[in-house]
Amino acid sequence: xxxxxxxxxxxxxxxxxxxxxxxxxxxxxxxxxxxxxxxxxxxxxxxxxxxxxxxxxxxxxxxxxxxxxxxxxxxxxxxxxxxxxxxxxxxxxxxxxxxxxxxxxxxxxxxxxxxxxxxxxxxxxxxxxxxxxxxxxxxxxxxxxxxxxxxxx
Length: 153
Description:
It is built from 5 helices and 6 strands, in the order ββββββααααα. By secondary structure, it is α+β, with helices and mostly antiparallel strands. The protein has 2 domains: about 5-50 and about 90-145, no CATH class; about 50-90. The radius of gyration is 17 Å and the shape is elongated. It starts with a strand and ends in a 10-residue tail after the last helix. The mean pLDDT is about 85.
């Protein structure tokens, strides 16, 4: 397992946008070596806001569909509550690991697969429960291809 060399220090944007690192941030990975994220880098931490949007959209759709087709509305509502539960189980965890992961995705310093492995290792190193680390890793493996090397630098 890896280790962080210092505490993450970041300044959150007032409008709820990205956070900006106030000083350099370093993670030592047992497989990939030292990964340094420079001060000034912007991160959104764990990119789970789309999951929240999907959850609320499904819940709103379930209300509309339920007026005409109650069974369909109930099914859509169940999916919405499932997405909301998934969002609640991962939001706010692993900010340090997510910062390193965002840096790796934005620079292409490592392959996407290696970046995701570092993310999982960093989540575990920061004390995130193994089941939650696995869920977060699975999320980036499933949806990360949309963001790899497309993030703003």
